[in-house]
């Protein structure tokens, strides 16, 4: 029998737009269907990090407590604010920022650090995103111990509105997922992005009202300082902080923060879906 040359074989028809979109959504759906896998891997990451440690993951809480206490004592004196007011404000902001900053910094290397799994395990790329996100959720849960201890020391007027912090964190995690996916994909293609990302995150830490109180500067008697404080509204990270920090501290809810976060969520996930549709299949080659 005469064999048919590969050159004579008909090429597979190119995928249509609807097919590529279907594969993008299927990647997300399949990843959620394998939640036992990424949940186990995320938990193993924490156990591996504190392997042979006496107190294990409690080091996360201890480190956060020491950092918040030191910064709270320092900046409350610098800004002439009561420790009972500034320390909880700083601690909650620091806990939330830890989640945000780690999602961005570790998200830039989410596919690079999982090169072996990506090449050997046929799985949706979104699994690695969910693995990292779950790990950061566990870190956040550990750090919340510091918040509850501060509530006992410096009680706050919490009401049912404070429960708004739960859906607020869910929205934050939803945004963390698309950030990890987009930044991780770009960084896999362009390896200069991770160092740039870390520098930007470090810069934004000081430009975001975490160690300094936005409300105090906004109502400052000096009009120049109050006017410059208004510029913080341009910072998108501030709005993510406030939708969680305000209910956690029993402060009045400013709903314009939710509006800004909602717009960012929609635009961010639209971008993430486009990235997933166009570059999902290339990640395994880039790593």
Can you walk me through this structure?
The chain has 287 residues and is mostly helical. The protein has helices at 17-33, 35-49, 58-78, 83-107, 115-120, 126-153, 165-189, 193-207, 214-218, 223-229, 236-249, 255-279, 283-286. Helix 4 packs antiparallel against helix 6, helix 4 (83-107) runs parallel beside helix 7 and helix 7 (165-189) runs parallel beside helix 12 (255-279). The longest helix has 28 residues, at 126-153.
List keywords for this structure.
287 residues, mainly alpha, 13 helices, disordered N terminus
Q: What is this structure, in a nutshell?
A:
The chain is mainly α and 287 residues long. The protein has 13 helices and no strands.
Helix segment tally: 13
- Bulk shape: globular
Which blocks of ≥5 consecutive residues have pLDDT under 50?
Answer: 1-12
Element string (H = helix, E = strand): HHHHHHHHHHHHH
| Percent range for β-strand residues | under 5%
Q: Indicate the percent of residues in helices.
A: over 70%
Rounded Rg: 22 Å
Count of beta strands: 0
In terms of topology, how is this protein built?
Elements lengths: L16 H17 L1 H15 L8 H21 L4 H25 L7 H6 L5 H28 L11 H25 L3 H15 L6 H5 L4 H7 L6 H14 L5 H25 L3 H4 L1
């Amino acid at each position: 029998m005469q064999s048919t040359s590969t050159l004579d074989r008909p090429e597979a028809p190119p995928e249509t737009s609807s097919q590529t979109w279907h594969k993008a959504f299927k990647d997300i759906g399949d990843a959620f269907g394998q939640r036992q896998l990424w949940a186990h891997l995320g938990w193993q990451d924490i156990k591996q990090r504190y392997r042979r440690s006496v107190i294990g993951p409690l080091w996360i809480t201890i480190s956060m407590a020491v950092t918040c206490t030191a910064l709270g004592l320092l900046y409350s004196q610098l800004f002439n604010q009561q420790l009972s007011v500034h320390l909880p404000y700083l601690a909650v902001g620091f806990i939330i920022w830890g989640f945000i900053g780690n999602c961005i910094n570790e998200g830039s290397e989410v596919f690079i650090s999982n090169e072996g799994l990506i090449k050997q395990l046929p799985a949706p790329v979104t699994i690695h995103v969910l693995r990292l996100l779950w790990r950061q959720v566990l870190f956040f849960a550990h750090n919340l111990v510091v918040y509850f201890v501060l509530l006992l020391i410096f009680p706050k007027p919490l009401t049912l509105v404070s429960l708004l912090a739960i859906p607020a964190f869910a929205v934050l995690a939803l945004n963390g997922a698309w950030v990890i996916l987009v930044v991780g994909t770009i960084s896999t293609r362009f390896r200069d992005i991770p160092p740039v990302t870390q520098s930007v995150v470090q810069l934004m830490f000081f430009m975001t009202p975490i160690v300094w109180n936005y409300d105090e500067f906004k109502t400052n008697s000096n009009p120049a300082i109050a006017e410059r404080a208004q510029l913080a509204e341009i910072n998108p990270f501030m709005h993510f902080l406030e939708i969680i920090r305000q209910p956690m501290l029993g402060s009045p809810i400013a709903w314009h923060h939710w509006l800004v976060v909602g717009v960012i969520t929609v635009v961010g996930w639209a971008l993430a879906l486009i990235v997933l549709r166009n570059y999902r299949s290339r990640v395994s080659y880039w790593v």
